[in-house]
UniProtKB/TrEMBL annotation:
Gene3D superfamilies: lambda repressor-like DNA-binding domains. SUPFAM superfamilies: lambda repressor-like DNA-binding domains. One of its GO terms (molecular function) is DNA binding. This is Uncharacterized protein. PROSITE patterns: HTH_CROC1. It holds the Pfam family HTH_3.
């Protein structure tokens, strides 16, 4: 499930609404709505705006886009526990992003270190026959690290049996 679908589902549950109820208000079938929640279907711009109005949040919060603090919420800015919608949705994002264990983080760091040390050899990566410079090497390291973390999260999500999922 991608971050956007995760936020949509979390917002619906936080508002204590059923998927059928939301689908009816959107004017789409419940199955199509659940496919949006699972990330199998894309949400059109007009449906996203309608969905934000149904949930009474801004589009930026619903979709996890950068936003300004002066227009965070439309009307209902607290849930029953007094938490703001933004803080709850940010917590959901953090849970999604922090899904890797310490061992998995260590494994990624070791693999990344091995890859970067291979770049230092004479037969390493070169652009048009010239050795890679330090700035490009650091940019490559950052890109590789984020790609490896994302790949590990996707694999973990895809290959974890349902009985171990919460």
């Amino acid at each position: 499930m991608d971050s956007q679908a995760y936020r949509i589902r979390g917002t619906r549950k936080m508002r204590k609404m059923s998927g059928v109820e939301v689908a009816t208000k959107l004017g789409i079938s419940p199955q199509y709505y659940y496919d949006i929640e699972r990330g199998k279907k894309n949400l059109s711009a007009d449906k996203a705006l309608q969905l934000a109005k149904i949930f009474d949040v801004t589009l930026e919060i619903l979709l996890g886009l950068p936003h300004h603090s002066d227009h965070l919420l439309l009307n209902n800015d607290h849930d029953t526990d007094g938490n703001t919608d933004e803080s709850i949705l940010d917590d959901m994002d953090n849970n999604l992003q922090n899904a890797l264990s310490k061992k998995e983080e260590r494994d990624i760091a070791l693999d990344l270190e091995r890859i970067m040390s291979d770049l230092d050899s004479n037969e390493a990566l070169a652009f048009h026959g010239e050795p890679i410079n330090e700035e490009t090497k650091e940019a490559l390291r950052i890109s590789l690290e984020s790609s490896m973390k994302l790949a590990k999260q996707f694999a973990k999500q895809k290959y974890t049996p349902n009985k171990y999922k919460k």
